Amino acid sequence: MTLADLTTIPGRRYPARRLTQNLVGGASPIQATHFSAGYITLDPDGGQTPWHNQEQEEVYFVLEGTVEVCLGDARQLLSQGQAVYIPPGVFHQITNVGTSSARFIYIYGPAGDVAHWRQELAGTLPKAGVDAPPLPAGAWPQCTDTHIL
User: What is the CATH number of the domain that holds 97?
Assistant: First the structure.
């Protein structure tokens, strides 16, 4: 039996102020062909998975906190117990709008690496409204800072 335990998976900190821990795929002991999954902790007041797109379809499921989800030209607040479906190829972003950490699970398929992780670490994420479509009106700005806190 192969298990993944969040208490033993160190995860990775990203410049946009989040911790990503792989549950299925990546550095996790659990590997699957058809999907990947992980646990994200967004720092208070703007921790984010910045504006990006990918080939895989994805679901975000909010476990704790209040987040702003931008998907294409739509913007919506989500809270504990709510999920959003992200179609392949559509630009999206999730931002913690609260004063305490927010937590969510992502699930995407098929399994594999997503480019935005490498792009964020390298400082080469496509910039909203410049190299990528603009964010919806009123959205938190995309974090493209390469300084890891």
Answer: 2.60.120.10
Question: 3 in a domain, yes or no?
Answer: no
CB neighbour list of residue 118: distance below 8 Å, 6 or more residues apart: none
* Domain span at 21: 12-122
3-state secondary structure of 78: strand
For residue 110, say if its preceding peptide bond is cis, omega within 30 degrees of 0. Answer: yes
Burial of 132 from C-beta contacts in 10 A (0-12 / 13-18 / 19+)? middle
pLDDT digits (tens, 9 = 90+) for 55-81: 999 999 999 999 999 999 999 999 999
Domain annotation covers residue 133? no
In a domain, 67, yes or no: yes
Given a contact cutoff of 8 angstroms between Cβ atoms, the answer to whether 18 and 42 are in contact is: yes
